[in-house]
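Inverse folding, one chain.
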């Protein structure tokens, strides 16, 4: 952005009293680094009469998508972002999803990998909590991430995760696919390293209580093969034992 554009955005920001002060200050600090198309988007959003939670997320989305580096959000702003998500996770509507989901995907790709463990954990939990209310709108790629890494966290926010996946299966998967949609999640679930319980003892051998090892125990105990129907059985097993 040139100096004239920076000053215009500053004036628009100062008029938005609902925008958190810390966030406005950080936006001002990185304005010179933003590209021309981001200026146009920010001017459109900040210049609208209505400015609420959706617009705050839209502004954050433009910034994260444009910079794709940690300087887009300082540690303080990550904490602020965490608070913003916590404050709006009870909004599971599609309009909110259209704004929040692209931002969540960008944060997971560009911001989480470079955060400290504690900051990553706090923000990651907030993202999962937000996604739990948008579960049926998420792209398959993000469902893969959740099943691989955050299925335990997800079950803490959803009353019946199996029901959710069944609903998505019947909507997203045509009848003639012979269960292929559900089967794609089995290899991911079987490699999940989240901790579930305290320990697993098989014979005289003690194993780490990961989801992966619990499912190995489940398969050994039931002796069931792995068609799509049992994919949901395994998901149900994880939920009931978390």
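Residues assigned per position:
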């Amino acid at each position: 952005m040139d100096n004239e554009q920076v000053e215009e955005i500053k004036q628009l920001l100062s008029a938005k009293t609902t925008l958190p002060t810390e966030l406005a200050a950080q936006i001002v600090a990185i304005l010179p680094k933003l590209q021309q198309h981001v200026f146009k988007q920010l001017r459109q959003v900040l210049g609208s009469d209505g400015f609420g939670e959706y617009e705050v997320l839209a502004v954050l989305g433009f910034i994260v998508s444009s910079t794709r580096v940690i300087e887009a959000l300082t540690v303080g702003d990550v904490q602020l972002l965490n608070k913003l998500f916590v404050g709006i996770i009870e909004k599971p509507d599609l309009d909110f999803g259209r704004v929040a989901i692209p931002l969540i995907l960008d944060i997971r790709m560009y911001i989480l990998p470079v955060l400290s463990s504690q900051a990553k954990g706090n923000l990651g939990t907030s993202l999962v909590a937000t996604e739990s209310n948008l579960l049926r709108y998420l792209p398959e790629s993000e469902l893969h991430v959740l099943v691989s890494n955050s299925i335990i966290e997800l079950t803490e926010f959803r009353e019946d995760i199996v029901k959710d996946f069944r609903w998505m299966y019947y909507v997203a998967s045509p009848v003639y696919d012979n269960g292929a949609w559900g089967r794609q999640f089995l290899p991911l679930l079987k490699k999940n390293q989240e901790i579930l319980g305290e320990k697993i003892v098989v014979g005289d051998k003690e194993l780490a209580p990961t989801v992966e090892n619990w499912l190995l125990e489940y398969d050994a105990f039931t002796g069931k093969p792995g068609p799509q129907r049992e994919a949901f059985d395994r998901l149900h097993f994880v939920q009931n034992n978390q």
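The chain has a mean pLDDT of 75. Residues 108 and 240 are 28 Å apart (CA to CA).
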